[in-house]
Amino acid sequence: MKIDVEIGDIARWEDEVVVVNLFEGVGHPGGATGAVDTAIGHQISAMIATGDITGRFKEVAVFPSFDRIPGNRVMVVGLGKREEFTLDRVREVSATAAIKIRDMGLRTFATVIHGAGVGNLDLGDATEAVVEGALLGLYRYTEHKTDNDHKKIESVTLVNLDKVAVGAMRDAVHRASVNATMTNFARDLVNAPSNEKTPRMFADRVRDAAKAAGAKLTVLDEKQLAAMGFGCLLGVAKGSVEPPRFLVLSHDGGGKSKPIVFVGKGITFDSGGIALKPLEAPGTDPMWVMRYDMGGAAAALGAVLAAARLKLRVNAVALAPLTENMPSGSAQKPGDIVRSFGGKTVEVLNPDAEGRLVLADALGYAKTLKPQAVVDLATLTGAVKVALGKHAAGMFSNDDALAHRLERAAEATSERVWRLPLWDEYNEQIQSDFADIKNTGGRSAGSITAAKFLERFAEGMTWAHLDIAGTAWVESAPDSPKKAYLPTGASGYGVRLLVRLLQDWKTTG
Ligand code: BES
Ligand code: MN
Ligand code: ZN
Predict the structure, then answer these.
(1) Active-site option among 356, 405, 456, 483
(2) Which architecture does CATH list for 188-503?
(3) CATH class of 2-164
(4) Percentage of the chain exceeding pLDDT 90
(5) By the 8 A CB rule, do 194 and 268 touch?
(6) Residue 508 has what pLDDT?
(7) Helix (H) or strand (E) holding 403
């Protein structure tokens, strides 16, 4: 999709649709909406008077312009109440408009920058949100649809009156395009069926993406992993005929500074292993959705690819342990003891608690990079959904400053985090009688004991863990977010959050 920035009066724009907006309760629109209203003979005001346009959040009205302006149609989107307005509403309004226009079978539109100048919202941020909203909202996973409708928006023109701001707008368009494109890259990986993203195939896809973005990728295979001592990852992989991989993706933009490392859980299918999950059972997810158990890896990789494309002046590395978790005659068994990358031994009491195992090795490897900070992302526990639902990731950290950085990035991107405790008392639950630590802590505080397990492997590093089991996948059920820019399936959660973290790394402490 082509995105242009233009200066001028949108009422004079020639396009299939001209998109303007309205706050709820406004009787006589001003600004660009007022200009269009005047040009078309006050039809917008008339429809407000009859109650056909109210400005309610995400309301859409479209009507022909009858050649009173060069644009063929006028669309008025509702911004909702002025006092409830947020940057995230800009993303939603923009997504709503773009989807409606696409579904009408149209290919181009011109739009104002929703929210620019409202309160203290600056034009750059608003532009970024408009572009992100449209690109994220228009996303569809159609890879396997042979009867796809082929409706597609080809070009969008962002029209603004203020000439001075063109540079800032172009920068914002670039940032937003990269963020949304890499979020959609992560979504494609997560939505892909597991037979098309075995660890080897997954590595191939990332190799292509790394080449295109100008990032460096190293892929460790099963022989190298064995030689280097990735005992936990290999233990999980034992049950599968597909060999594991370990990806190291880096963007070097920060000279000699130490890297910021992202670690992502990459279970390309989690059957539960010998502790086989039910195909479907009340109150739990059906087994097929466990293809999204690599959402952490997709987000970590997507963020570093975005950092490379944006040429951010930081060193960023994504680590992704990739394997299937399968049951078989060679699968690891309850009670098996494995040795992690750093040397600590782990008693595998539940083969379905495999995420923390592969992350243990990855965190051990991260330590060899002497990072400034490590953030891991993992669809780690069903329990985090019980605690927070699907509206926030559970955040755990051994460092308040890093936690606050993530909270600020979450605020800016609306990819929410909510901090949970790492109190020492929880250690009791993962004490092992036979090894250094065991991989389950029982049902009580399941997300916290999983985080406590990871904390042991993150010792000596500034570290945060995000449990994204709730946020990585969107359904139509009432507990899922109903945001216009989050289509059903993979959300791509984490890419925008992590990119924002990197962007702000130097300016905020
Ligand atoms: N991948 C799952 C966690 C999960 C569950 C993610 C539901 C998304 C939706 C993880 O590997 C797992 O199986 N966790 C177990 C841990 C338990 C065995 C200690 C769980 O949450 O039940
Ligand atoms: Mn599992
Ligand atoms: Zn899992």
Answers:
(1) 356
(2) 3-Layer(aba) Sandwich (3.40)
(3) alpha beta
(4) 96
(5) yes
(6) 60
(7) helix 400-413
